[in-house]
Amino acid sequence: MPNTYHQFVRVDFSHFKVFDTFSIQLRHFNILVGPNNSGKSTILAAFRILAAAMRKAGSRKPETVRGPQGQTLGYIIDLRAISVAEENIFYDYDNTEAATIKFTLSNNNALLL
């Protein structure tokens, strides 16, 4: 049976850094352009966090973590080990609401960070 690879086709941000809510559609090749403080680095930060999560997922078993709908299996990612400024990870510095990033694959599966 041949390996089937799926690509990311969409990223949804909620309460993450400069985005209260924002979605971006992805193609096979993407270029981010825009003025300063428009979110380009925020999008790249999301992919850095995803890469760290995927490395962790490949190296150990999931643990019980708090997810948007309660307890679930997943991984705790230490953001201090990633080049992401923790002091402003929440939109408008409001840490009362969880910041989430949802990566959707071409097969409609999704990864939620």
Describe this structure in words.
It is a single chain. The protein is α+β, with helices and mostly antiparallel strands and 113 residues long. 18% of the residues lie in helices and 31% in strands. It has one domain. The strands form 2 sheets. It has a 4-stranded antiparallel beta sheet, with no helix packed on it. A hairpin with a 2-residue loop joins strand 3 and strand 4 (70-74).
Number of strands: 6
**Radius of gyration, taken over Cα atoms and rounded to an integer in Å:** 15 Å
The helix/strand order is EEHEEEE
> How confident overall, as mean pLDDT?
83
Structural class: alpha+beta
Terminal Cα span: 30 Å
Number of domains: 1
Strand order of the largest sheet: 2-1-5-6
Determine the fraction of residues in helical runs and give it as a percent range.
Answer: 10-25%
Largest sheet: 4 strands, antiparallel
Shape: globular
The portion of residues forming beta strands comes to: 25-35%
- Uncertain parts: none
Count of DSSP H/I helices = 1
SSE inventory with pairings:
Elements (H helix, E strand, L loop, with lengths): L7 E9 L2 E7 L14 H20 L3 E5 L2 E5 L25 E6 L4 E3 L1
Antiparallel strand pairs: 1-2, 1-5, 3-4, 5-6
Please describe the structure with a list of short key phrases separated by commas or semicolons.
single chain, 4-stranded antiparallel sheet, two-stranded antiparallel ribbon
In short:
With 113 residues, the protein is an alpha+beta fold. It is built from 1 helix and 6 strands; from the N terminus they run E-E-H-E-E-E-E.
